[in-house]
Design a protein that fits this description.
globular, mainly beta, Neuraminidase, 5-stranded antiparallel beta sheet, 308 residues
Amino acid sequence: MTAAAIVRPDFRAALALLAFLLLPCAQVVAQDLPKTDLWLANINANQPTSLAGPPVKINTTVGYNNQPHFSVDGNVIYYTREVTLPNGIAQTDIAAFNLRTRTTTMVNQTMESEYSPTPIPGRNALSVIQVEADQKQRLWAISLTNGEMELLLPDAEPVGYHAWMNDQQVAMFILGDSFDLYTAKLQEAGSSKVASNIGRTLRRHPENGDIIFVDKNTEPWKISIYHSVTNSIQTIMPLFPDSEDFTVDRNGAYWTGNGSKLYRRSPMDARWELITDFGAYGVRNISRLAISPANDKIMLTSEHQAAN
């Protein structure tokens, strides 16, 4: 089955109302982008169900700072950063926060907007979704060596989000009459639909490379996993009402936020366990999360709270 390549004009109007849920359009006015902050917290090495110390905000700019992802070695946090042009138009480029030097540099600065920076397995490169000049949203690679960009899947669009299953196969959130999960392989034409009505979060299972996603077909929405070998879907656990953001650590435990609170749950647990409440630090409405490869750090995206 081939991914839908065109979104009907009437549906594009509806998508304009979903800027925070989906990718903000490349040509929106700066103040229309949601203002978000990125927070880094340390996980207690001796007790993985607790944190060590308060969270630290890593972004220095006010605006859209979102979609964090750790590098393979855990030393860098890549994220989507809003850049405001002189004419007041906002676009996004990819930033890199170095955990050793505590400094931020830009991975790229293009005329287009890029989102969802994700390390590509086996390559010194990031995959991103670029909103191209004609508003197509396709999957590209950015070399971390020289900054050159390469179109990875010419026929798959419009892509909202993605996650790598291995160095050749990728899972994608495709926009259409519903928001659907597709898989595709590099150097092969076409893509295959595996689930409908999904949430924006896609994660690779740390043990087998299967894709974990949010199934929105029933309430409450549920974390589910697509087993590629058997071409089957398994329900894992429910999320909090209206929540679609989570991450999974290398031990197979899941993390999510609810308001200013951070929760953790293993597949064997009966309920989500409260880890901490970040409200006192100005963190609110936690959305996207990321765990470091060593399981010692967690990134949180939070709604920006202006200083009094």
